[in-house]
Design goal:
mainly alpha, about 10% strand, 4 helices, about 70 residues
Amino acid sequence: MNSVTTDSSVALESTWMTPRQVATYLGVGIDTIYDACIAGGLKHVKLGHRTIRLRRTWVDAWAERRAEVHD
């Protein structure tokens, strides 16, 4: 088993994610994630002055709320 992991593989396996992992998971820029957290739309936990974490279920729910149906 390979002990080296990438941000994307960790994002798929971990319940708690860093903003960078969330950005990779969703295929967006990290600024998009920080902006969503600041605006209050993306639920997150602040663990310190500069440390936040997000649950994958929160990220999925946020993305679903933002999804648009195109006919």
